[in-house]
Write a structure and sequence with these properties.
There is one protein chain. Helix 1 crosses helix 3 and helix 5 packs antiparallel against helix 9. It is built from nine helices and eight strands. A hairpin with a 2-residue loop joins strand 4 and strand 5. It is 45% helix and 18% strand. The strands form two sheets. The protein has a five-stranded antiparallel β-sheet with strand order 6-5-4-8-7, with helices on both faces. Keywords: DNA-binding, Transcription, Transcription regulation. Pfam families: IclR_C. This is Transcriptional regulator. One of its GO terms (molecular function) is DNA-binding transcription factor activity.
């Protein structure tokens, strides 16, 4: 499962990122890793090779811009609300999140399972929205904004199945070690499921060791050229995945995606 560890999903080497910007991003990630208690100056000092005065300057600058705010516990910092404002826009490319949210809620209320919206993000799939029904279950992601490497989970299979083959193979090569180490998922099993997904029009995740009691389904949300803008996903207990339930959930998701595309008209396009 994606553990949210610092600086694992982005290349932030000095040769590619201005130093001050890199340090500011690290401060934000350290803050996020400390959760609701907030991060202290010692947390930053332990994680960064920066002096105390430099860290205080970074903290002040980020706080002035709204990216950090004081925690209830004196001397600690939480992520600022400005990130929430930016995040709501970043997670709503082409209006996809706004269009999908009520449809996920409707599906969750109708079928009782957990429904998600994922989008491709480099070599990862990022969760843009989640709605839980009467029988909520666990997932590889903990909440909106969580990431998993493409290849883990049914949504990422649906996304991979509609990428250009060279892009797909490149992503899987880069993710192979992590998928095997952290999820116990092999590339051979992923390729088999991708081929199945392309034949039947929906995806099921590849079984690994992380969530053995759960299963799921996903269908892609494609633009006019067939490129995946996102994937609508459902997670449930394996005991609930009867043939009738699978058929009904798939039909419900397919209907919602079809209506979403009709509602969006020309909105769901990639330039």
């Amino acid at each position: 499962m994606d553990d949210g560890s610092i600086m694992t999903t982005r290349n932030t080497s000095r040769g590619q990122t201005p130093t001050t910007l890199m340090h500011a991003m690290q401060v934000l990630q350290i803050t996020a890793s400390q959760g609701p208690r907030g991060a202290s100056i010692d947390d930053y000092l332990d994680a960064l090779t920066l002096s105390r005065p430099t860290i205080y300057r970074l903290l002040k600058g980020l706080k002035d811009q709204g990216f950090l705010r004081p925690a209830p516990t004196r001397g600690r910092y939480l992520l600022g609300y400005e990130l929430l404002v930016l995040g709501s826009q970043a997670g709503n490319g082409a209006g996809l999140r706004d269009l999908t949210r009520p449809r996920l809620l409707s599906l969750a209320q109708q079928f009782g399972d957990s429904f998600y919206l994922f989008a491709p993000d480099g070599t990862n799939a990022v969760c843009l929205e989640v709605q839980n029904g009467e029988y909520p279950v666990g997932s590889f992601v903990r909440a909106t904004g969580g990431r998993v490497p493409l290849g883990a989970g049914q949504a990422s299979i649906a996304l991979l199945a509609h990428l250009d083959i060279q892009e797909r193979e490149s992503i899987l090569r880069r993710n192979a070690e992590r998928l095997e180490r952290d999820y116990r998922i092999s590339l051979d099993a992923i390729v088999v499921e991708i081929e199945h997904s392309r034949r039947v029009g929906y995806a099921q995740g590849v079984d690994g060791s992380q969530l053995p009691e759960y299963t799921g389904l996903a269908i892609p949300i494609l633009d006019h050229s067939g490129h995946p803008l996102g994937a609508m996903s459902c997670s449930m207990l394996k005991s609930r995945m009867t043939a009738a339930h699978q058929r009904n959930v798939l039909q419900g998701m397919q209907d919602e995606v079809h209506e979403l595309r009709q509602q969006a008209c020309g909105l769901l396009y990639v330039e």
